[in-house]
Amino acid sequence: ATTAVFTQIENEPVRPKIKDAKGILQQNREFLDFFWDIAKPEQDIRLKAIENLIQYLKKSEKSDELKYTLKRLVDGLAHTREAARPGFSLALGQVLSVFEEVSLRTAFDQIKEKHNLVTVKKKLIRNAAFGNFFGVLALSQSTRLPKEPQVVLECVQLLQSLSLHREHLRDLPRKTMVDILSETSEEVFEEVLLGALQTDLSSAFSTPEQLQLLLVAMQKFPQVLKPKKLKKLLGTSTIITMDNIPKLTEVLKMAARSVKKDRLLPAVALDLLQISLKEDNFELFWRETIIKGMLKDQPGPTHYLSYRLLGSALPLLTLVQLKQVLNGEVMRAYGEHVVSAQLPDRFKFAPEMETYVGDFLQGCDEPEKQLAVVVAFSLLTNQGYPVVPSFWRVVQHLRPTALQSYVDWLKDMFLNPQLESCLDFSTRRQKENQEGGVQRENCIFRLRKWIIPRLTSIVENNQVKREEDLVMDVARFVFFHAFFNAKKATPDIPETEATLSVPLDEKTRVVVINSFFGLLQHMNHLPLLGDSPEVAARNQRHVQGVTGDGSMWIYCLVQYADALLNQPKYAQSTQPFSPEQRRTWDSMLASVRTLMKKSKKGQTPETSAFQQLFLLVGIHLFKVSLINTTLCSAGGEEEPHWAEVVVDILLSLLSQPSRHIRHVCRTVFSNICPHVTARALTAILDVLDPDKDEEDSAVVVTDDQDSDKIKKKDIKKKGEEDEGEIEVRSEEQSDASDDDSEEGEDEAMEEGGEVDQNFRIELMKVLQNQGALATEQDGSDDDELDDEAMMKLDGSIAALFLEQKKKMQAKKDEKDKLKKGKTLVRDFKIKVLDLVEVFLARQGSSPLVLGMVEPLLSVIESGMSSESDQQEQDFLRKAADIFKNQLCRAKQYCKTVGDRQGELHDLLEKLMTKAQKLSDSSVSLYFFSASLYLVKVLRGGVPGASADGKTILSTEELRFMGNVDVERVSDIFKGALRSFMTRRKSPLSGLMFIDLFTRFPVLCVNLLETAVEHITIGIREHQQSQASAMVLRGLQSREVQQLLAGDPWAGLLQKTVVETAKNKVVQEKLVKALELGLFLVKNVNQQKLSVALEPLKKVLQSMREVLGFKKTGQMEDTYWAVMKHFGVIKPKRDRIRKTKEDQAEPTAPKKKKGFLPETKKRKNRKKQLPVSEKGAADANTVPLGKPEEGKKKRNKNKKQPGEETPGQGLAKKAKMTPVDFIGLLFVSNPAKTRFHLNPMELGLSSVY
C-alpha cells in the first residue's frame, strides 16, 4: 500500500510554471508592493500606497501595468480581509478618476465577471457580494459615473440585486443608490433611472431605505416627481397625510432600531421632517407621528430618535414652531430621561442634546430664537428644578442682546417664580414617594436654588462674551438678595424696584450667600473685559480683579454695600450691624480711602495689600457676626512693621472656614513676600510648632452653645468649602438627628465599660433604702415589695440612671468638643502651610528661609511619631512635601550667609547628631537631607558651574567649598559614617552617604578612606556591602577621579584592592564586592597604574573553587567579567550527544499531554484488520517488559534497560522497513501524524 502511495505521487503531472510574458512580476518589485500595502489594515499605509501607485502609473505610462493594476484592484474588491476591501475600492476609484482612457464599461464588466453571484461557490457568495458592492462604490467615487447613463442604470440594477443579500450588506446598497441618485442629472433620472426604480419608489413605505430613496428623488428632481406622478406611484399626491401616518411611523421605528448601536439620526427621519415643512404639514407630522406614534413605545431607540429629531429640527423651525415643539411632550419625555439616567451604567442623552443646542446657538443669528431655546430648556423642570445643569456651556454662543435678555429673565424668575409656565414633571418613583402631592414652596426653593448658580456661572464662564455692566448687574443682584430686603422702591437702587412675590426662606438665603462669595472669589481674578487692543495688552501683563478704569471689583461692591447701609429707608439688612460693627465698617472705608489717595502718587505693595485686606474684612462683616475691630485700625500703628501687621491679619482671617478668604490670603501674602520680616515669619512658624500649647496658638477654638447657630455655621462652612449646590433636606435631617441622638445615648451607656464605683454605691443605697436588697440581718429574701413600693423604687432608679446618663453625655460632649477643636486647629495649620509654601516659592533665596529648617523638621518628627487620623496624615504629607521639594531640592536657594557661618555649622552638627539618635529611619532621612541643604547653603554658588550642571569644572573649581569648614564638616560626617558602620540598628542608610558623595566630591574624598576601612570591619555583612557600594559610587565619580589624580588615586585603589580581597563568601556582600572589584581591575588596566592586583586574583580564584560559578546570574556574570581582565575566560559547557547505549539507560521519558499510553488503549478484538494493520494492532498487546517480582508496583511509564520503544516493537512485529512504516502511518491517520510524528520516539534515529 505504501509503495502504491509513493508511485501515485511520482506519477502526478508537474504543475506548469507561471508565465509572465511581459515580465512585469520579475522586473519591478516596487510595483507589486503597492498592492500589498493597499491590503494592510493600517489606514495611513493604505492611503500612502494608493497615492504612490497613482504617481507611479503616471510616470510609467505602460499600458500593461495599467491593465494589471485594473485586474489586481478588481480582484481585491472581494478580499477576505475586511479592512482591505475599502482600500482596493478607493484605489480603483482613484485610478478610474485619473486615467480616463480606462472606460467605466470595461471596469464594470470585469467586476461583474470576476464577482458573478450566479456562478460563484456558495461559501464565497459573501465575498462576491462585497466585491460587487465595493466595485459600484468605486465607480461612483470616480466622479465619471454621471457621464455614462447606461453604466449608471446597470449599477442601480446591480445594487437592487445586492439588496437581496441583506444578511451580508444590510442597507448599504440602498444608501449607495441614494448617493448615486444625488449625483445624477434630472435628464438621466427621467430617461434612464425612473423606469428601473419604479418598483422601489412604489413601495417607498416598506423600508427606510426605499422611503429615503423616494424623498431624495423628490428633493433632487421636483419637476419629475410632481404631485400627479406621486399620485400614480403612491396613491397620494403628498407624503404627510393621515392615511400615510401609520406607515411612516412604522418606517421610522424600523429606522430607529437599525441605528440602535450607531447612536445617530437616520437620514430618512431628517428628510421626512424637511418634506413635512415643505408640504406645510409639520404640525400633523410632529403630533401624529412623533408624539402619538414614537413616544408611545417604551423608552428606547424610538425615544432617542425623537430627541435627535428635536435637536436637528431647531435650525429649521420658525419662532412659533420652536415654542410649540419645545413646550410639548417630546421635551417632557426628554426631561424624564435626563432625571432617570442619573443612575450609573445608564445611557445618557444629555451630552448629545447639548451638542445639538450648542450648534444651533452658534449658527443662529436671530437673538429671539436663541432666547426662546435657552428659556425653554430652563423651564423644563423636575419638581421646580431645571434638568439642564446650572453651568451650561451653550450660553457662550448667545449674542449680547440675547444674553442680557436671558439674565433679565432669570432675575425676574427669581423674584416672581412662575411655576405654571414651567414644563414640570415628576418621575414614577417621586410620585410614589409623595402621596400628598408636590408642595409649591419646595418647588420655588428648588427653582431659586438653580437660578442663582445659573447667574453666577454666566459671569464665571470666561468663554461668555459679557460686558462689565452685566457682571456688575449680576453681582449687585446676588449681593442684595443675600444680605438685604427691599422696603421701598427708589431709582437709585434698581434692586428695590422689583419686590419678591414669595419671600426668601433661610435655606434659599444660605444658597445665595454661598454663591455670592464664590462669585466674589472669581471676580478677584477676573481679567479685563473687552476686545480692544489695549485690553489685550493689559491682559498679557496678567492684570486681574479690576475694571476698565482700574477700580477693584470688590471695591465697587463695597461702595454698593455702603450705599445700601446709608439708605435704610429703602433697603433693610437681614442682620443689621451692631454699633461696634458699624464703627468697624466706617473705619474700614476711611482706611481704604486714605490708602487710595496714597496709591495715586504711586502704587506700593503695602497699600495694595492693606486695601485688599480691609475690603475683604469689610465684605465679610455681612457674614461673620463678630470680628476683631483692631483689624481695621492696625494700619495706623507705628510700632510693628506693616508686613507684620498684614501677617497677623492673614493669620486671623485664615481661622475662618472660607475658601475665598484662604485664596485671598494666599494672593496677598504672595504680593508682600519680598517685604516679610523675620518677626513676621516667626509668627507663621510659631503656629506650626507642635511643642507650643493650643492656648498659645494663633487660633482660638470656641464652641457655640446655640445649636441653631452651630447648624447654620456648619451649613455655611460646607458651602464655602465645596462651592457647589447645597441640597437641604430639613425633615430627613431632623429625623436622622433624632435617631442619632437616641443611638448616641444608648452607645454612651454602653461605652461606659466598667461601671463607675460611685454609681454602684449610689445604686446600692437606693435599693437598700427601699428594702429591695437583702442584707445579712434578713433571714430570708422571700419577702416581696408591694406595688406602691415598687413604683417608688422604679422612680428612684430612673432618677439615678437619668443623672448618670447626663454625666456620661457631658463627658462625651466634652470629648467631642476637644476633638472638634483639634480638627479646627489642624485645619488652620494646613492653611498656614500655604503661606510657607508661597514664601519658599517666591523668596527661596532669602536668608530668612534658613529659619524654617528646624520648625519644619519638628513638624515632621512629631507627625511621624504619633498615630494620626486622615487629616493629620494630610498635614504631615504636605509639610514633608514642602520641606523636600520646596526647600531642600529648590533650584533657588540662599547663597549668601553673611556672618552666620558659625551658627549654620552648629546647626549642621546638631542635626547630624539628632539624625543618629532617632529610631525612625524615614525621619532620619529628612534630618540628613537638611544637613546636606546646609552644606549647599554654606558652599554657595560654584564659580563656573552652569544651571544644567553639564559644564566640566577645573580642579580648583571643584575644590571650592565657599564658607564650609571642610575639616569640621568632614569630621561630622565621618562620625556619622562610623556610627552607621558600627551600630547594628542605625537609622542611617547607605543611600544617604551615596547622595553625599554624589553632591559634594570634596567631602567624598575625605570620607572614602573611612568607607574603605569598613569594607571588612563593618559590624554586619549588610554594612560591609553598603561600604563597598559607597566606595564604588565614589570611585566612579569623575570629579573624585579628577581631585585624586596621580599617586593619591593609585594609593586609594591599592588600599581598596587589599580590603576587597579580604571579603568572605556572603551573598549580599559578595555581589557588591565583585562590582567594586570589576571597577578596580578595569580602571587599573586602562590607566596602567602600578597597583598590585595579585591578592585580588588569588581570592577570586579561590572563590571559584568554593562556589564553582557554573550557573548564570548577576553574581556569576560579574565574577567572570572580573576574571576576564585577568585573562581567565569562562569555560564553555560541552554538549555531549548521547549514543544508543546511553539512550538505553533507564530514563523517564517526558509524558505528552493529551496522549493515552499504549497499554491503556482499549483493543477491539472482534474487528478484522488487514495483514499489515493486524500486525500493528498485535504489537499493542505485547507487554513492554516483564514485571518485577515482588509486591512493589512498577512504573509503567519508565523505560527499562534493553526495552523496546512502542514504535520499535510496532515496526518489528509488522516486519516493515522504517520508510514503509512511516508511509503506513500517513495513510492510516494523516492528521494526527502530521502534528505528532516524532522519528526519535519511533526508534528511527538511524534513518535521520
Automatic annotation (TrEMBL):
Q: Which UniProt keywords apply?
A: Nucleus
Report whether Nucleus shows up as a keyword of the record: yes
Q: Where in the cell is it found?
A: Nucleus
Output the Gene Ontology terms for molecular function.
RNA binding; sequence-specific DNA binding; transcription corepressor activity
Give the signal sequence positions. Answer: none
Domain of life where this protein originates = Eukaryota
Q: What SUPFAM superfamilies does the record point to?
A: ARM repeat (SSF48371)
Report the source organism. Oncorhynchus tshawytscha
Q: What is this protein called?
A: Myb-binding protein 1A
Q: Name one GO cellular component term.
A: nucleolus
Ranges of Acidic residues compositional bias?
Answer: 733-753
Positions of region (Disordered): 710-753, 1133-1214
Compositionally biased spans, kind Basic residues: 1149-1168
Family assignment? Belongs to the MYBBP1A family.
Question: Keyword Nucleus: yes or no?
Answer: yes
Among Pfam families, the record links this protein to: DNA_pol_phi (PF04931)
